[in-house]
Design goal:
9 helices; TIM Barrel; 33% helix; 283 residues; single chain; 13% strand; alpha/beta
């Protein structure tokens, strides 16, 4: 476990009695409130001193309500919440600028995530969506890419059309771990790493494996590839809590990464667990 406080760049918080999350109806283990008090318990002995909230795929009409709610949590309950990555309807193209202008005024909003993973393979290269992503630069907002591995080729095409936007790939691109798939994820991750405005978030890995039966030996080759592909100043740690609890407890996730990172320098560990996140999200 790191001997210094870390930054968790991927924390979800929700309260179904306050906002509407349609997907929770089919996720029995997650269909309840998950709040900062729960997060503190689940972290165990892991020292987290800054957190970045990621939008939670709620009813899209409530995206501004979600951002304001999390900003209020940061002010009243959880001062470690230093950044918010909010949903925005980027598929509206230039029309999304009005929404981005309002979002950018909410305290703590640092970036946007408009989920791609549930869309068609070609969704992220549609002209309106590309225009919406390009607009992020005007508001100094980054973009979190949440895609499944078959969408990576078009993700690369999207990024190439947005050279002035800063991107981070969530969950290492969601490779097909459960099915033992490496290609073309392996090569496409290299292609993304060649683009200087793309970082990679090491998060949400075990949930792409068999939740009940994954093994370290099964997971390690995917993590080794990530750490061998992106430099440490373009890698960041994410807990993906509470979704991650479907497959792993929070301290065990950090312990797993420690095994993979054994032998790394203090400088590399600080980049991965702290410095990259602070720089990217402007914490």
């Amino acid at each position: 476990m790191p001997n210094f406080p870390i930054v968790d760049t991927h924390v979800h918080l929700w309260d179904p009695t306050h906002l509407n999350y349609p997907w929770l109806a089919d996720a029995e283990k997650l269909n309840r409130a998950f709040l900062p008090s729960d997060y503190r318990v689940h972290c165990g002995d892991v020292q987290v001193d800054q957190m970045v909230f990621l939008e939670c795929d709620l009813d899209a009409t409530q995206f501004l309500d979600e951002a304001k709610w999390v900003a209020s949590l940061a002010e009243d309950e959880e001062p470690r919440l230093k950044g918010i990555v909010a949903h925005a309807p980027l598929h509206k193209g230039d029309a999304a600028k009005a929404d981005l202008e309002v979002l950018a005024q909410v305290s703590g909003v640092k970036g946007v995530r408009r989920l791609i993973q549930g869309e068609s393979v070609g969704f992220c290269v549609q002209p309106d969506f590309v225009a919406g992503v390009q607009a992020l630069r005007e508001f100094d907002l980054s973009f979190d890419l949440c895609v499944f591995h078959p969408q990576l080729a078009n993700t690369i095409a999207l990024v190439k059309q947005c050279p002035n936007v800063q991107f981070v790939l969530d969950h290492i691109g969601k490779p097909g771990i459960k099915d033992g798939l490496f290609d073309p994820w392996r090569e496409e991750l290299k292609q993304l790493a060649e683009l200087p405005n793309v970082l990679c978030k090491v998060s949400g890995v075990m949930t792409e494996a068999d939740h009940e039966n994954w093994t370290f030996d099964e997971i390690r080759p995917y993590l080794d590839h990530v750490f061998g592909t992106f430099p440490f100043d373009r890698l960041m740690y994410g807990g993906d809590w509470p979704v991650s609890t479907l497959a792993i407890e929070y301290p065990l996730w950090v312990d797993t990464l420690d095994k993979v990172l054994a032998g790394c320098s203090e400088d590399e560990l600080h980049h991965f667990y702290r410095d990259t996140a602070i720089s990217f999200y402007k914490l």
